[in-house]
Amino acid sequence: MWDDPAEIKVRNEFNQWAADGRGEEMEDHHLPITEPVLPLMALKPNDRVLDVGCGSGWLCRRIARLAPEGSVLGIDIAPEMVRRARAASHEYANLNFMEGAADSIPCDGGSFSKIISVESAYYWPDPAASVREMFRVLVGKGSAWILVNYYVENPHAHQWGTIVNVPTHLLSTNEWMAFYRDAGFEGVHFRQIPDRTPVPDEYTGRWFRDGEQMRKFHQVGALLVYGTKPRTPIAARP
């Protein structure tokens, strides 16, 4: 299934993250920046929602409760993440998980009314192709929402690229918005979402130099980029 070396590297790394229990940690880490996004998405009870890079499925389970008459699908490149997501989601009749990469979503065109991806997009080997795939699998007037903490305008996260064991794309807001427009999206916008999580006085983790850098990172916030597929799509640029 996987033959791209970059995808294989990402798949293996996140399989290990899953085995180490880090998938379950993501809810605590990412919920403060994700909660403000859900009202903006204006989820309806019958929405068909895709979560790209779903990890252990924490966000899918939240969305499944908000769309009880619809359906939610989470895809992840790491089979161990998918296995753990399924194991934690048995009580949700409207929720499913599949292995899948962002640049080759294993679904027909027009399958979803909303798509979200949280803290996954900068790992995608080909972000532009992945945004085009999101456009393909959306219905007309459907929307796509990408949320990332690692981007050019938040310099307090730039060191992450030298810490993680997989390639990352450090892209600007304008670059992400251009991917959307080139794919054919309309109404492309962005906003920054500060993280209100308290920062300890003494930071001992690996992602930041010290507590002050982490505070500044939280103040700048995550980048949310979103847009809508036209009801009658125009052809994407070559």
Task: Summarize this structure as a short list of keywords or feature phrases.
single chain, 238 residues, alpha/beta, 7 strands, globular
Would you write up a description of this structure?
Helix content is 35%, strand content 21%. It contains eight helices and seven strands. The protein has helices spanning 5-19, 22-34, 37-41, 58-66, 79-87, 127-137, 173-183, 211-220, and strands at residues 48-52, 71-76, 95-99, 112-118, 138-148, 186-193, 222-228. Strands 3-2-1-4-5-7-6 form a seven-stranded mixed sheet, sandwiched between helices. The model has no long low-confidence stretch (mean pLDDT 92).
Show the helix and strand layout:
Blueprint: H1 5-19, H2 22-34, H3 37-41, E1 48-52, H4 58-66, E2 71-76, H5 79-87, E3 95-99, E4 112-118, H6 127-137, E5 138-148, H7 173-183, E6 186-193, H8 211-220, E7 222-228
Parallel strand pairs: 1-2, 1-4, 2-3, 4-5
Antiparallel strand pairs: 5-7, 6-7
Distance between the ends: 26 Å
On the 0 to 100 scale, the average pLDDT is: 92
Fraction of residues in helix: 25-40%
Major sheet, described briefly? 7 strands, mixed
- Ranges where pLDDT stays below 50 over 5 or more residues in a row are none
